[in-house]
Design a protein that fits this description.
211 residues; Metallo-beta-lactamase, Chain A; eight-stranded mixed beta sheet; 4 helices; 14 strands; 34% strand
């Protein structure tokens, strides 16, 4: 299984013929638009920095509503949540996507989660292998709350997202505010490739993509 980070909240996950892209952004965010042809695209909410699937190539399925979706060996569950602490009153709804891939690896993408998750959501996210979680604060949960969530869920892999880099055109929190809480932090260039049996030996390993 391979993972790429395109910037902001957008990743690609490749597994046995599946090439899934999360939260595609538009040019105003500051990152280069990825030149990829996904099979599936998930959008956690309909803001410009998370829903620009029109800039991607090819024909693909777009999943942008809560619910359960089955595409053969790919299963996606969209779990309702909010973009803020006031049940969406400030910034609207958000979707946490729980995705089970052909290899049986389970990945959760938290979108622009803006609040602590409740017990019902924790239960739905039991036994996840990897999380893609915002850490930058301002528009989402910050590093402290993200740390609390991952320590509750105990995934094997953690991919932080939605934080300040040289590309971002608006203010967000720094990566170091999150990584300082973890012992196992690795930097990778290009794709991060891992087998299920190897990944399950990790305990909250944080993977940082160099850009």
């Amino acid at each position: 299984m391979k993972f790429w980070w395109f910037g902001h909240s957008s990743f690609a996950i490749e597994d046995d013929g599946i090439f899934l892209v999360t939260d595609p952004f538009d040019k105003s965010v500051g990152y280069p638009i990825p030149n990829v042809k996904p099979t599936h695209v998930t959008e956690s909410h309909q803001h410009f920095d998370h829903n620009a699937h029109n800039l991607l190539r090819g024909n693909f399925e777009v999943i942008k509503e809560p619910g359960i979706y089955n595409f053969g060996t790919l299963r996606i569950e969209g779990i309702p949540s909010y973009h803020d602490e006031d049940k969406g009153a400030k910034r609207g709804p958000n979707i946490i996507f729980k995705m089970k891939f052909p290899s049986s690896m389970i990945v959760a993408h938290f979108g622009d989660l803006g609040h602590m998750i409740d017990e019902n959501t924790v239960k739905k996210l039991e036994n996840i292998d990897a999380v893609m979680i915002p850490i930058g604060g301002v528009f989402t949960i910050d590093a402290k709350r993200a740390t609390e969530i991952v320590n509750r869920l105990k995934p094997h892999l953690i991919f932080p997202m939605h934080y300040m880099t040289k590309y971002v055109s608006f203010e967000l929190g720094k990566l170091e505010n999150f990584t300082s809480s973890f012992k196992d932090v690795s930097n990778v260039k290009g794709a991060f490739e891992v087998k299920l049996e190897d990944m399950r030996k990790f305990d909250r390993k944080v993977v940082i993509f160099e850009m």
